[in-house]
Amino acid sequence: DALLKVALSDRETMVVSAAVRSLGKVGINEGDEVTTAISFIVNKYDLLLPDNSLAFESLVALESLHERTGALKDPAAIRMIMRIADGNYIALAEARARALLDKLRTSSSK
After folding, report:
1. Residue 1 and residue 47: Cα distance in Å, rounded?
2. Residue 109: which residues within 8 A CB-CB, separation 6 or more?
3. Which of 52, 72, 97, 100 is least buried, going by the fewest C-beta atoms within 10 A?
């Protein structure tokens, strides 16, 4: 809960990025609470000023959550990944988003 509060309330993107990455490492996503929060945070910054580091760390966190829980089904999180893949981010973040989308497609078809 503390990490989630920091991620949602802090105004410094470096702090938010670290909190988001830590949420992925913890690996708890009951009721899609964490994935919804991550997508909300990235979308908020995407509207104001896209942050490459935050986008990349969010992808790392979502990938980690996907691997730990076996599925990433939150529609908001999937839309956020698509937005990063097609958005105004550095090539590394866009490539990571495309790779994660491919991984999600592969795991959902099994």
Report:
1. 25
2. none
3. 52
The encoded tokens of residue 78 equal: 């999937």
SS3 at position 90? coil
Q: What is the pTM of this model?
A: 0.93
DSSP assigned state of 1: -
Residue 51: strand, helix, or coil: coil
- Count of beta carbons in the 10 Å neighbourhood of residue 106: 9
Distances (CA, A) of 80 to 48, 56, 70, 77, 106: 15, 12, 19, 5, 18
Vertex 102: Cα angle to 63 and 21 (nearest 5):
15
| pLDDT attached to residue 110 | 65
CA dihedral 59→37→42→90, nearest 10 degrees, is: -10
